[in-house]
Amino acid sequence: MSFDLSVVTYEIMSGKIANREDIGTWSSGTPGTMKFNAGMEETIVKFRAKTVYRVVTVVQPPFMLWNETTKKYEGYCADLIEELTKIMDFEYEIYEAPDGKYGRMDENEEWDGLIAELVNKKADMAVGALSVMAERENVVDFTVPYYDLVGITIMMKKPKVPTSLFKFLSVLEDSVWGCILAAYFVTSVLMWIFDRWSPYSYQNNMEKYEDDDEKRYFNFKESLWFCMTSLTPQGGGEAPKNLSGRLVAATWWLFGFIIIASYTANLAAFLTVSRLETPVESLEDLAKQYKIQYAPQNGSVTAMYFERMAYIEERFYTIWKEMSLNDSLSELERSKLAVWDYPVSDKYTKIWQSMKEANLPATFGEA
User: Fold this and answer.
1) Residue 147 pLDDT > 90, yes or no?
2) Which residue has the higher pLDDT, 92 or 107?
3) Which of 47-51, 71-75, 144-148, 275-279 has the highest mean pLDDT?
4) Which backbone phi and psi does 99 adopt, to 5 degrees?
5) How far is CA 50 from CA 88, 92, 95, 219, in A?
6) Judging by DSSP bridges, how do beta strands 125-126 and 52-57 pair with one another?
7) What is residue 29's DSSP assignment?
8) How many CB atoms lie within 10 A of CB 191?
């Protein structure tokens, strides 16, 4: 029995037929044939079924992030999968891994995070900043990496260097500056008193010194000025005429020389120490210091790297210890295993211990 079917499309708007198009006629047979009307072959393509994939991801800027305003995923990976849909003509629905992790295998060989969604067939594919690892390659297939970061990058918070117009005062303690200021006023007062009441001063013997080219009347203001300028390379100028005033001036000059020399030495040491405080530039520098706390994100590839390196160091040390303490070895073989230094480097063991003490952050934002 043979028959024909007319293929018609309807466009319904507001419960009414808005547009009707005759696509063509399908004739039964082995095989059946489809005869399209003029220009209708491209129209039927719109009704072709599309494949819909479930895509799992983990939010980590800038590769994948959620925009609360647009209610859409954004970032490099979001743009990448959008381009793939245009090229391969498929649709997808994206969701985040329930625990927000990329995936790690526990002691029972069970997976969590994003990898678990793929292994348990809950997702068809995964997209994100997922690193290729040996144990992950055993259970899932990876594409060619689109971003390859060689090595481990140390990211530090930039220190805030305080700036102040009076930073030069921090070279000496506040108590030292207070003593210098007190000595300045005491010396000025003594010089004024000795010049005021000494019978050999200029102001009490003006007739004796009237032929001198330099005459200086040491009142209190002039005494303050003399003591201040004596600390500068310009000098204090004309000294007092009386012996008591000159002894005070000489004592002040000696005091000023010692203070200036001490200040200059402390300033040079202060600037030198500031330049010597270099930032951490390698893992060795990080392991040698104790001021800066450091840790990778918990469950990340970097954290797994340090954990495994510490485990390997421990295993190597255990193997060496068992070999060196073996009673069945001859003296010659035992001497070959004897070393003066630590047989296995414990650099990563110390680094991993410091990381655990600093509490590994659970999320990128917490870090």
Assistant:
1) no
2) 92
3) 71-75
4) -95, 0
5) 10, 10, 19, 103
6) parallel
7) S
8) 26
* pLDDT tens for each residue of 73-85: 999 999 999 999 9
Residue 141 has what pLDDT? 92
Angle at 114 between CA 108 and CA 116, to 5 degrees: 35
Look up residue 64 and give its DSSP letter: B
Q: Is the pLDDT of residue 317 over 60?
A: yes
Q: Of all helices (H) and strands (E), which one includes residue 259?
A: helix 243-276
Cα–Cα dist 95/56, whole Å = 5
Say which DSSP state 11 is in: E
Residues in Cβ contact with 5 at an 8 Å cutoff, skipping those fewer than 6 apart:
25, 26, 27, 28
Neighbouring CB atoms inside 10 A of 112's CB total: 17
DSSP-assigned states of every residue in 325-356: T-TTS-HHHHHHH--SS-SS--HHHHHHHHHH
CA pair distance 195, 222, nearest whole angstrom: 11
- 20 forms beta bridges with 10
**Residue type for position 18:** A
* 8-state DSSP, 99: T
